[in-house]
């Protein structure tokens, strides 16, 4: 396995890396958080072992930055800070495990093996498509036939819900609950107004319509 070791204490780093190499792994050592972040983004590691107290970028901030960048690699934090709140902070930052210093390599190796036995994490699809319509959940962008489409926040939420339920008939009540969080009928034409706005933006400029009215039932998004 390729293992990134981010540790500023040279003796500890040498101990970890030599022990990992003896077990047949391929460790890469860096000594500060900023370099650790660059390596985490540029390389495909199986596991990352990250010290909590690091120069340039501390371990918790490094873990948070890695997770914000959508890098799913399992992370073990190493730290002499072993209080309950310290461990909770590490796990909440995005780490998968937290090992308190001093530690025996046998325990670190066992924890690495345990992480490798976990089933791979299924990532949520971040781009939704229907015909030539595309919505990027990360960038909050919408386009059709390659042409960008500007939507207001509520129009965007409505389109996300329609795409997630493409092909289904969605009633007015379902749309009110999912998009406006109304659990009662406010007796307004808010749904109809926003459907009309969406049609003007994603249907009318193009040859084929994607938003369809199902008389007496609701609306359906399909090609």
Characteristics of this structure?
five-stranded parallel β-sheet, 39% helix, 223 residues, alpha/beta, four-stranded antiparallel β-sheet, elongated
Walkthrough of the structure:
The model has no long low-confidence stretch (mean pLDDT 91). A hairpin with a 4-residue loop joins strand 7 and strand 8. The protein has helices at residues 10-22, 33-42, 59-68, 84-93, 105-116, 153-164, 172-179, 190-202; strands spanning 2-6, 26-30, 47-51, 75-79, 97-100, 127-130, 133-136, 141-144, 147-149, 211-214, 218-221. Helix 2 runs parallel beside helix 3 (59-68) and helix 6 packs across helix 8. The strands form 3 sheets. The protein has a 5-stranded parallel beta sheet with strand order 2-1-3-4-5, with helices on both faces. Strands 6-7-8-9 form a 4-stranded antiparallel beta sheet, covered by helices on one side. The protein has 8 helices and 11 strands.
Briefly say what this structure is.
It is elongated and about 70 Å long.
List the helices and strands and how they pair.
Blueprint (H helix, E strand, L loop, with lengths): L1 E5 L3 H13 L3 E5 L2 H10 L4 E5 L7 H10 L6 E5 L4 H10 L3 E4 L4 H12 L10 E4 L2 E4 L4 E4 L2 E3 L3 H12 L7 H8 L10 H13 L8 E4 L3 E4 L2
Parallel strand pairs: 1-2, 1-3, 3-4, 4-5
Antiparallel strand pairs: 6-7, 7-8, 8-9, 10-11
Helix pairs in contact: 2-3, 6-8
């Amino acid at each position: 396995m390729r293992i990134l070791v981010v540790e500023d204490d040279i003796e500890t780093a040498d101990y970890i890396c030599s022990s990992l190499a003896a077990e047949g792994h391929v460790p890469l050592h860096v000594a500060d958080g900023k370099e650790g972040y660059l390596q985490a983004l540029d390389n495909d590691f199986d596991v990352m072992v990250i010290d909590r107290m690091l120069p340039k970028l501390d371990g918790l901030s490094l873990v948070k930055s890695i997770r914000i960048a959508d890098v799913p690699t399992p992370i073990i934090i190493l730290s002499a800070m072993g209080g309950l709140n310290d461990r909770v902070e590490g796990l909440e930052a995005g780490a998968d495990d937290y090992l308190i210093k001093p530690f025996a390599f046998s325990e670190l190796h066992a924890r690495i093996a345990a992480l490798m036995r976990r089933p791979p994490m299924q990532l949520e699809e971040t781009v939704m498509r229907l015909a030539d319509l595309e919505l990027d959940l990360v960038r909050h962008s919408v386009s059709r036939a390659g042409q960008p489409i500007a939507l207001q926040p509520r129009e965007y939420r409505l389109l996300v819900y329609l795409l997630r339920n493409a092909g289904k008939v969605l009633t007015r009540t379902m749309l009110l609950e999912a998009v406006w969080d109304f659990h009662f009928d406010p007796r307004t034409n808010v749904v109809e107004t926003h459907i009309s706005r969406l049609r003007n933006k994603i249907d009318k400029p193009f040859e084929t319509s994607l938003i369809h009215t199902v008389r007496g039932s609701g609306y359906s998004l399909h090609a």
